[in-house]
Amino acid sequence: MRRGAVLIVAAGLALSGCQSAAHAGETAVSAPMAQREAAEKGLKTAVFAGGCFWGVEAVFSHVKGVKSAVSGYAGGAKGVANYDAVSSGVTDHAEAVKVTYDPAVIRYDQLLRIYFSVIADPTLKNRQGPDTGSQYRTALFPQSAEQTRVAKAYLAQLSGTKLWKAPIVTTIESGAFYPAEAYHQDYALKNPRHGYIVRWDAPKVAALKAMYPGVWQTGFVRN
């Protein structure tokens, strides 16, 4: 998501976007229900890294039970947790989103299912969509022992399926989360006509609505 980068969309229109190198588009996948359900009570937080955080935030902001979805940086040091440094790809951070949710409405294992179905391609190493670099890796940052157990079990479950032709490379990591700059928050809501949002993120939100109508909420959860 380098500042001033240019993305050439299918229509040939040049628009400022998250990155410049283009790759094949992502395809939604019907991930299975988790065999191990999360046992949680009270509001919880979970951190997901899956490429440019604009799209990750946009999807989770339309899920019932989600109270907030904050874009930020996870896995690296506080002193370099800023957009310019992270965009260099050498800070160990991943662009990530911290989701606060009510397990009585949506469980962690259900959020994982959504993540693997419509947000991220877990077989791509250090890239998603048009974005390349370790900051765009797919990674889960569990916030509790229960989330760690559920995440490990679900990754093992998915690895036994034939949903993807290539091996899953999504990692389970630890590390603090640092909120991104204010202009990155609610980005898809504030910039619905931005070329990157239209090309890469709006289809993810549409896939959520089509595939999981039971958890879809029309309103965008603002930060």
Discrete helix count: 6
Q: What is the CATH domain class?
A: Alpha Beta
CATH homologous superfamily?
A: Peptide methionine sulphoxide reductase MsrA
What is the CATH third-level topology name? Peptide Methionine Sulfoxide Reductase, Chain A
Strand order of the largest sheet: 9-8-3-5-4-10
Low-confidence stretches: 1-17, 19-25
**What is the structural class?**
alpha+beta
Query: Mean pLDDT, nearest integer?
Result: 90
- How would you name the oligomeric state of the polypeptide chains in this document? single chain
| Rg calculated over all Cα atoms | 16 Å
- Secondary-structure element order, as H and E? EEEHEHEHEEEHEEHH
Number of domains: 1
Number of strands: 10
